[in-house]
Design a protein that fits this description.
single chain; 119 residues; mainly alpha; Metallo-beta-lactamase, Chain A; two-stranded parallel sheet
């Protein structure tokens, strides 16, 4: 299965979230797509970046995106600002995934998910 940038090995997911003009990505939708791809039971997964692997690559991305969603929404529900959430969640994600590259994408993911969540 060729995934393009839906999946990367060993790095934080690339969220093309650049408001106010480029905001057509959906983190919630991305999680649903990952679940659907997992259901196809591929033997080989070719990510957009990183090493080729198996279906565990899909689960890793799905699980990371769900973590990012949950951490973002929990803080938003507590009344934190988007910037404060981005700073805090970035630190949490780097701690949980210390070997992953490109942590600058965490803030973009927070911004996307922050806007998707109904308060």
């Amino acid at each position: 299965m060729f995934t393009g940038d839906l999946v990367e090995t060993g790095q934080f997911s690339i969220f093309p979230w650049f408001p106010p003009y480029d905001t057509d990505v959906t983190g919630v939708g991305w999680i649903a797509v990952m679940q659907r791809l997992i259901g196809e039971s591929p033997r080989v997964v070719v990510p957009g970046h990183g090493d080729i692997g198996g279906p565990l690559l899909l689960a890793d991305v799905r699980d990371y995106l769900a973590e990012l969603r949950d951490e973002t929404w929990r803080r938003r529900d507590a009344g934190m600002s988007e910037q404060a959430i981005a700073t805090e969640v970035r630190a949490v994600m780097i701690q949980r995934h210390p070997d992953w590259a490109q942590p600058e994408w965490v803030e973009r993911g927070v911004g996307c998910l922050y806007c998707e969540h109904a308060a």
